[in-house]
Amino acid sequence: MRKNSNDKEMNLNRAKENQFRDFQDFMGIKFNNEKLLIQAFTHSSYVNEHRRKPYEDNERLEFLGDAVLELTVSQFLFKKYPMMSEGELTKLRAAIVCEPSLVLFAEDLSFGKFILLGKGEELTGGRERPALLADVFEAFIGALYLDMGIEKVLEFLEKVIFPKINAGAFSHVMDFKSQLQELIQRDGTGVVEYRVLQEKGPAHNREFISLVSLNDVELGIGTGRSKKEAEQRAAQMALDKLKTETSL
């Protein structure tokens, strides 16, 4: 009976090793320390059911991966949007590294089918649970960083996350000026400039009229109680104009 139990355990371990080798082939990434990769996909419920084996769950890797992801995404946004304010960058980064976004990244890569779960967690749908998938994605980033360094993490993100940012997947959380800047940068068509056309009214009830242009060609005019608000309205008009033109 004991021999059968040991054979079953050996077969499970062999299947698990093959599974993660297939995963690495699929990802085009070869871990130097495969134990880190397996740990990244090991949920605490699996560890609790295999106490005799030296398994570690992914919680510490998740902690590290969260920090690495914030740093690498911050670096990418800092370079991509030189005109974006600190507050705007923070808002955009938060949308990229939040749980719903991490779940989508994990689902795109079929991470769910590789997670090592306890039987109870498996039966209650843990493999599709958003928080669990997001944690695994962060843990994978942490494992990749420990195994191969920051450059390999950036290389991975250049395939998985950065193209989505470039394609405008998160532009809904950006203000109109940032969205316009992103659209222009993506098309590489020139320089956006804002100019105050007029200021009117008393100091306590000031009104600004601003114009936004691209290569000296007018794109939009906006009115607001502050220069910033007027520029936002002008950028909104410019976006509507450009989107209408591209859809024709």
Q: Secondary structure elements and their pairing?
A:
Blueprint: H1 2-27, H2 34-40, H3 44-49, H4 59-80, H5 86-96, H6 99-108, H7 119-123, H8 130-148, H9 150-160, H10 162-166, H11 176-187, E1 192-200, E2 207-214, E3 217-224, H12 227-247
Antiparallel strand pairs: 1-2, 2-3
Helix pairs in contact: 2-8, 4-5, 4-8, 6-8, 8-9, 11-12
Structural description of this entry:
The chain is mostly helical. Helices cover 62% and strands 10% of the residues. The chain contains 12 helices and 3 strands. A 3-stranded antiparallel sheet has the order 1-2-3. A hairpin with a 2-residue loop joins strand 2 and strand 3. Helix 2 runs antiparallel to helix 8, helix 4 crosses helix 5 and helix 4 crosses helix 8. The longest helix is centred in the first third of the chain and has 26 residues. The termini are far apart.
Brief account:
With 248 residues, the protein is mostly helical. It has 12 helices and 3 strands. It is elongated and about 80 Å long.
Keywords:
248 residues; 3-stranded antiparallel β-sheet; 12 helices; elongated
Strand order in the largest sheet:
1-2-3
Helix content: 55-70%
Number of strands: 3
**Counting H and I runs of at least 4 residues, what is the number of helices?**
12
- Approximate shape: elongated
Helix/strand class: mainly alpha
* Terminal CA distance: 73 Å
Helix and strand run: HHHHHHHHHHHEEEH
Largest sheet: 3 strands, antiparallel
